[in-house]
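Example (one chain per record):
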Amino acid sequence: MVDTISLASHSKPSSKSADQKASAPMHGQGATAKTAKWIVLGSGKGGCGKTTSSLNLATIAAGDGINVVLLDTDEQQTLSNWHRLRERQGGLPSIRLVTIPLSDFVRAAREIEALQGVDLVIVDTPPGLDNQAGVSQLVRRADFVLVPSSQAKPDLDSAVEFMGALVNLNVRGAFLLTKTSQRWGSYRMAKKRLNGAGNLCPVDVRFLRDIEATHEFGLGINELSGAKGTDDMESVWQFVRKSVGI
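Predicted structure:
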């Protein structure tokens, strides 16, 4: 849970200062190359849709001609397993993968910055996020943090707490409501609560079998012919794209 990593204990900076940027190496000294945008999928709880959202945003962005790197910081390597399945497919937009634990984030950042032509880095994070130093470096590095949550109370509690930590660190972000069932009363209550606690992506992601099936094939929802949920994820991508200025 977020309270175990005490993210909110950091003092709130007025801007991303040079000291903050030095906490994790970014964009080589004096570099003139285009700077990649970093999007982090983070929350204090597992099972809320971080990995599923990461891979689907990556495939949609890649389909738009954006050079994407996925960073898998979860030692369970669910995203990496998906990527291995993807490599067996043919004729798909290229998505590069870096797999390095969150505890070694500084090395991960350096490795990504050594890559050429990167437009966008999408980071999947582990459940729990109990590595205080790694989490702090990662979210401070982010241009935008998406905080996924289902409409279940434990997910909402964790997401709201995590967003509070981001606000305290002056990090831009938004909630993303996932695995939704709009027929349930908890859906309306979840939207009300998240809207009251911070910025909420205006489009939620429905609880659909097709979206979950992306893990089985190494594909994104936009690459599954006739799949339900493509509009959901494409709309989330448009929100994220606008938010980070890609």
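Caption: Residues 1 and 44 are 5 Å apart (CA to CA).
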